């Protein structure tokens, strides 16, 4: 079971680092706790949904901000608001923080600021996506090796 | 196991198996929410479309126990959904949002949400949401079962509980019988018999009505929906149905008032200023006035008791009717004793002349009562009778100046004060529940001299309470309102004079409502501290003006319109008589007035000033 232990240790360390770096927060832990035998892929499901949603919203925002005639800040704000909600639900802390800043730029109708935030959001989202994918891969490896996912507190 | 068994078993295990409908356009959140809810062992249905949710709810109202909905949704605003659910299905709704702004939370609450959760939602929070279902069930049960006591009396005497305050004013009218009448707690008479399955009757006491009006005003007459009103009122054991039916009456009343107001306005205009013989009915702030008048204020009770206001009106009679809160007594009707008006007679005649053939009904209908109450000084609120501005019904209290100036615009909003078909009822619609002094609705009854004068009082009542500000104003009007114009019994006025005007005086600042009181339900503008001068009030002509405004307290020459009732038209009109003294203490006077009025009523044998709203 050395492999399993090793994998598990890797998993724990990786999880911890994600938390430490602010990619994930306590909400993610809650999600993990919700996962059980009845819904073994719960976390993966939620994360996938989140990524899809995120991409859609980012596209919306980009389109809205590109409008030369006049940016519909309300629309941008609505998208940001939604992104904020979903990122906080999944525990994507950094994404959520960018959203908060993003919203104030929207309110101020600052196109430049919004564009910058959009870039940041996109960046954070990509980072998070990669990290989570790595984490999930580790999880799968553990399961494949016959082990169980350790619960990270 | 039969289905029933299963179902009942499910229920027994409550909160396990509680059926929740979750609505959120964000798929991530929706999935999370659904999972969390299932983890709490609820039975969950999820949808990302508000419209779908509504459809599901409409299909079978009993399919769900609780609804959780996101605030920001593309196809329908969460608050709208909340409203719909509240109105149609009366289910508890919990709002969910990533935005925890106080304003938004407040909005949720005022729209009727039982709770407001912030995202990310945690399981601990969801574990307790079943309490809302239980609470609601309990409330409904109570509503249906309680209050046996009040009912019997309500007919005559405003219920037991409420009788004390509103006493007579809360005459239970048949229209008032709603499906459920709950005795008002506020009146301190809460006879709740949960065990009895009798449908309790709601006695719309002055207090209750006032709250109702306040709520309506806050929401705006167009946007006032029972659910929201109910939430704002925050009265236990009051159900949405009660509020809904009350609201209906209120709207009728407002309509009626506006007619009266219009007429009055015409008259007022014709009559000219100052001395309007009109009774300016203080606009009742919605019914509230009546209630206030009725209930608390002594006078009102007496005075109004006799009115069988239709529905609302009845209640209006009660203190609320007097509109002016705080007016000492609903008596504001200063029938007769409007001191100020010196020239009542003339006016009256004028008024009479104005009174067009449309008796009562006409007047009320659509006539914005614009009594020009001259400078309503303090309050420049003019009650609008008839066309009540939805939100701002201002009661017109004539400012310290001439009575006539007060404009009473009919309250459009308060249909409650309806004028009985025969009588003109000026019903103050107190839209603004608050201080406005309710518009006194003056119900006129045809044929009776005084018979219908609607409450004028509300204003007065209010006056009482409020010191100086708006309330006072209201009361003024109330007083005036009280001045039902009685054509015949002039003498009656005399004794009363003091009383009503006092109430006018209530408003320290009160507007000297010299002349006509704009009775018609003036919507007291909530914001106006004192009666706002509504534009409509022109001079309340024919309608019973109770001229609370005439009481100019400040000036010392308060006109108190004598309530000369213009019988023929069925309006009760008070001729403003300058009444030097009145202005004085608002508080006391109204009450006195009210009582005086009441007495007068008896004297005259009229039934009432009761607002007989033959709505």
From TrEMBL, chain A:
GO terms under cellular component: cytosol; nucleus
Compartmental location: Cytoplasm, Cytosol; Nucleus
InterPro entries membership: AHP1-5/YPD1, HPT_dom_sf, Sig_transdc_His_kin_Hpt_dom
Any one Gene Ontology BP term: phosphorelay signal transduction system
Alphabetic keyword roster: Acetylation, Cytokinin signaling pathway, Cytoplasm, Nucleus, Phosphoprotein, Two-component regulatory system
Residue stretches making up the HPt domain: 39-142
GO molecular function, one term: protein histidine kinase binding
List of residues that carry Phosphohistidine: 81
Comment field on protein domains: Histidine-containing phosphotransfer domain (HPt) contains an active histidine that mediates the phosphotransfer.
PANTHER family: HISTIDINE-CONTAINING PHOSPHOTRANSFER PROTEIN 5 (PTHR28242:SF13), PHOSPHORELAY INTERMEDIATE PROTEIN YPD1 (PTHR28242)
Protein name: Histidine-containing phosphotransfer protein
UniProtKB/TrEMBL annotation, chain B:
Region (Disordered): 137-200
List of residues that carry 4-aspartylphosphate: 70
Keyword NADP listed: no
CDD domains, A to Z: REC_typeB_ARR-like
PROSITE patterns xrefs: HTH_MYB, RESPONSE_REGULATORY
Domain HTH myb-type: 196-255
InterPro entries named among the record's database cross-references: ARR-like, CheY-like_superfamily, Homeodomain-like_sf, Myb_dom, Myb_dom_plants, Response_reg_B-typ_pln, SANT/Myb, Sig_transdc_resp-reg_receiver
Domain of life of the source: Eukaryota
GO biological process: cytokinin-activated signaling pathway; phosphorelay signal transduction system
Localization of this protein: Nucleus
GO molecular function terms attached to this record: DNA binding; DNA-binding transcription factor activity
A Pfam family: Response_reg
Protein's UniProt name: Two-component response regulator
Origin species: Gossypium mustelinum (Cotton)
């Amino acid at each position: 079971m050395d492999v399993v232990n090793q994998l598990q240790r890797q998993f724990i360390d990786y999880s911890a680092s994600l938390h430490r770096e602010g990619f994930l927060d306590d909400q993610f832990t809650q999600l993990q706790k919700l996962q059980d035998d009845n819904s073994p892929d719960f976390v993966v499901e939620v994360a996938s949904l989140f990524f899809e949603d995120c991409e859609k919203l980012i596209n919306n925002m980009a389109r809205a901000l590109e409008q030369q005639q006049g940016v519909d800040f309300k629309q941008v704000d609505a998208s940001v608001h939604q992104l904020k909600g979903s990122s906080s639900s999944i525990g994507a802390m950094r994404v959520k923080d960018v959203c908060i800043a993003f919203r104030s730029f929207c309110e101020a109708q600052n196109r430049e600021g919004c564009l910058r935030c959009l870039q940041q959001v996109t960046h954070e989202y990509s980072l998070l996506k990669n990290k989570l994918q790595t984490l999930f891969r580790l999880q799968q490896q553990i399961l494949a090796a016959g082990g169980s996912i350790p619960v990270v507190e | 196991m039969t289905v029933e068994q299963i179902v009942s078993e499910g229920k027994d295990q409550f909160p396990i198996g509680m059926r929740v409908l979750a609505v959120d356009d964000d798929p991530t959140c929706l999935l999370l929410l659904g999972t969390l809810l299932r983890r709490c062992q609820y039975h969950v249905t999820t949808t990302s479309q508000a419209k779908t949710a509504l459809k599901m709810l409409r299909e079978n109202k009993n399919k769900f126990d609780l609804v959780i909905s996101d605030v920001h949704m593309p196809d329908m605003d969460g608050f709208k959904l909340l409203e719909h659910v509240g109105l149609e299905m009366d289910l508890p709704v919990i709002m969910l949002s990533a935005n925890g702004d106080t304003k938004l939370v407040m909005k949720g609450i005022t729209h009727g949400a039982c709770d407001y959760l912030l995202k990310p939602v945690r399981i601990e929070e969801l574990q307790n949401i079943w309490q809302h279902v239980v609470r609601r069930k309990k409330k409904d049960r109570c509503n249906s079962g309680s209050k046996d006591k009040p009912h019997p009396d309500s007919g005559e005497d405003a219920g037991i509980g409420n009788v004390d305050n509103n006493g007579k004013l809360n005459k239970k009218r048949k229209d008032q019988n709603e499906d459920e009448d709950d005795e008002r707690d506020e009146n301190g008479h809460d006879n709740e018999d949960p065990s009895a399955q009798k449908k309790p009757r709601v006695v719309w006491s002055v207090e209750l009505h006032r709250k109702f009006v306040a709520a309506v005003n806050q929401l705006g007459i167009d946007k006032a929906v029972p659910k929201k009103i109910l939430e704002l009122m925050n009265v236990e054991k009051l159900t949405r149905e009660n509020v809904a039916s009350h609201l209906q009456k209120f709207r009728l009343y407002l309509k009626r008032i506006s007619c009266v107001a219009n007429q009055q306005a015409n008259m007022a205009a014709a009559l000219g200023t100052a001395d309007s013989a009109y009774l300016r009915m203080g606009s009742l702030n919605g019914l509230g006035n009546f209630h206030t008048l009725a209930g608390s204020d002594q006078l009102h009770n007496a005075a109004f008791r006799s009115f069988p206001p239709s529905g609302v009106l009845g209640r209006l009679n009660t203190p609320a009717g007097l509109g002016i809160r705080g007016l000492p007594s609903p008596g504001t009707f200063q029938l007769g004793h409007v001191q100020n008006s010196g020239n009542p007679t003339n006016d009256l005649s004028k008024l009479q002349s104005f009174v067009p053939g449309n008796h009562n009904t006409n007047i009320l209908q659509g006539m914005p009562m614009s009594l020009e109450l001259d400078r309503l000084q303090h309050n420049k609120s003019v009650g609008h009778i008839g066309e009540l501005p939805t939100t701002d019904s201002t009661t017109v209290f004539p400012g310290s100046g001439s009575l006539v100036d007060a404009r009473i615009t009919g309250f459009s909003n308060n249909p409650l004060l309806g004028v009985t078909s025969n009588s003109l009822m000026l019903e103050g619609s107190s839209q603004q529940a608050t201080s406005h002094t309710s518009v006194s609705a003056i119900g006129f009854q045809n044929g009776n001299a005084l018979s219908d004068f609607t409450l004028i009082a509300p204003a007065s009542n209010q006056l009482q309470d409020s010191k100086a500000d708006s309330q006072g104003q209201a009361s003024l009007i109330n007083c005036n309102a009280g001045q039902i114009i009685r054509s015949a019994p002039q003498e009656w006025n005399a004794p009363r004079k003091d009383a009503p005007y006092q109430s006018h005086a209530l408003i320290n600042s009160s507007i000297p409502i010299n002349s006509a009181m704009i009775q018609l339900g003036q919507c007291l503008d909530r914001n106006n501290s004192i009666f706002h001068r509504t534009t409509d009030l022109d001079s309340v002509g024919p309608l019973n003006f109770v001229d609370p405004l005439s009481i100019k307290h400040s000036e010392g020459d308060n006109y108190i319109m004598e309530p000369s009732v213009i019988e023929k038209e069925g309006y009760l009109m008070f001729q403003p008589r300058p009444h030097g003294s009145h202005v004085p203490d608002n508080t006391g006077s109204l009450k006195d007035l009210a009582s005086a009025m009441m007495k007068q009523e008896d004297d005259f044998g009229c039934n009432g000033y009761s607002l007989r709203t033959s709505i």
